[in-house]
Design goal:
The protein is mainly β. It is 0% helix and 62% strand. It contains no helices and eleven strands. It has strands at 3-7, 11-13, 18-25, 28-39, 46-51, 57-59, 67-72, 77-82, 91-103, 106-113, 117-122. Strands 2, 4, 5, 6, 9, 10 and 11 form a seven-stranded mixed beta sheet that branches. A four-stranded antiparallel beta sheet has the order 1-3-8-7, with no helix packed on it. A hairpin with a 6-residue loop joins strand 4 (28-39) and strand 5. The radius of gyration is 15 Å and the shape is elongated.
């Protein structure tokens, strides 16, 4: 069974840092595009950061200069380093990835979401 599992969410004071991890488990050939999204209470889910298979990174304006996305292809894991955290960064953070999945007879592309990890930034 293929799944994405996030970890690293926590309660932190404003100005602090956290590193989120997202690991893909299962019979995976490769990870293509991978993104971190977040959803605050009462708000829509929004893209925070994206990294492509060639390492190209994209960030939401609200996190530029504070957050950094990276990936370790050997571990099927991506990270979101979050520095200078602010109360408005409080949200559930989700990992989303386009995976190349192995199955009997071939390979297919499929999109997956993780279950989310909670980040709370206190003022």
């Amino acid at each position: 069974q293929v799944q994405l599992v996030e970890s690293g969410g926590d309660l932190v004071q404003a100005g602090g840092s956290l590193r989120l991890s997202c690991t893909a488990y299962g019979d995976i050939f490769s990870i293509d595009k991978l993104g971190w999204y977040r959803q605050a209470p009462g708000k829509e889910r929004e893209l925070v950061a994206l990294i492509t298979s060639d390492g190209t990174q994209t960030y939401a304006d609200s996190v530029k200069g504070r957050f950094s996305i990276s990936r370790d292809n050997a571990k099927n894991t991506a990270y979101l380093q979050m520095n200078s955290l602010k109360p408005h960064d409080t949200a559930v953070y989700y990992c989303n990835a386009d995976l190349q999945i192995n199955f009997v007879g071939g390979r297919r592309a499929q999109n997956y979401w993780g279950q989310g990890t909670h980040v709370t930034v206190s003022s």
